[in-house]
Specification:
This protein is an all-alpha fold. It is built from three helices and no strands. Helix 1 packs parallel to helix 3. The longest helix has 41 residues. It is rod-shaped.
Length: 130
């Protein structure tokens, strides 16, 4: 993940929020990798065709989560560039950067909700298998 700033250098709350989002995306990426590894274990351990169909559905869901994380990473990097330009101009945070921050808050809330739902479903599935 690119870092366009040092939070100590730019103490504006938007930069702190962006740093938090970066950490969230890193955590989600790591957790998704763990889930994919667990799914691989389930597939290898199971000979039940129904179990394999469910595993395939989770694999598709995990791929979608990867696309969401990649999209959010790209959007966050764009927002960081807007924030950086605002700071470089020295005129405060621009209206475009403020609007971008509000949009990202909404997008991150939706993405977090989807990720949490997917994670919960997978954990229920894993518990039912083992």
């Amino acid at each position: 993940m690119n870092k366009y700033f040092s939070p100590d250098q730019f103490p504006h709350p938007f930069f702190r929020e962006a740093e938090s989002w970066q950490q969230t995306l890193t955590f989600q990426r790591d957790e998704l990798l763990y889930f994919q590894n667990r799914l691989g274990e389930v597939i290898n351990a199971s000979s039940n065709p129904n179990s394999l169909l469910v595993a395939e559905q989770f694999q598709e869901e995990f791929l979608e989560q990867e696309r969401i994380i990649d999209f959010m990473t790209s959007e966050l990097n764009n927002q960081l560039q807007l924030l950086q330009k605002s700071v470089d101009r020295g005129s405060g945070i621009s209206a475009a950067a403020e609007e971008g921050q509000l949009n990202l808050r909404r997008e991150f809330a939706k993405a977090e909700e989807l990720f949490t739902h997917s994670k919960a479903n997978f954990m229920v599935y894993i518990q039912s298998i083992f």
